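Figure 2 data, in text form.
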Amino acid sequence: MSDTIISIYKTMDSITYNYNGVHETLTRIYHYIFFSFLFSVCKSQTENSVYICRTMEHNGMRPQDIPILLKVLLKEGEPWQYRDLSVALDISLSEISHSLKRSSLAGLYQEDRKKVARQSLFKFLQHGLRYVFPVHPGALVTGVKTGHSHPYYKEKFISGQELVWPYEGGDTRGQSIKPLYSGVPAAAQKDEVLYKLLASIDILRIGQSREIAAATSELEKYIL
């Protein structure tokens, strides 16, 4: 079924390519036909159609999904609403909703129970994070310490290289590490535990083997 849908889409796309003079009009027509067909497939609610539509709906994880899942995990055992996450993380309500839907489809969040799938999240962070959301040190900037420069890890590892999230309100000069989303430095300053977890995650993204082992152990304490 999925191969058939892809074949139909490619065929319609080739038609518009071969008739450049009416490209825009044909594009609108074939998009209308394709998505009308897709809607009918989704509406049929067969096993294959549900799989196809769920897969197309997911569209991959986003970097901000990780801090959102961590915040949900830290709030476990207390009542919370999307608005609480929005304020704490400086992420819009709509994006909180979309993010948790993505995580649910990925098997990282139990939407009906409002709980993080801890084992699955830990495995993803441990084995997949650095490949899905890679990062490399950038230029010297002022910001908030992260990775091995976080105060917790600073006591464990000696390094002449400071790593920071770029942030105007920061107090440290170091090589920039692009955060998972722009609101990470501000969110980290509101929650010390979240700050440690996000710094640990940066170690998984960019750290050396000894640092990664320590960060993995620290994440395990909170997640599992």
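Caption note: The mean pLDDT is 84.
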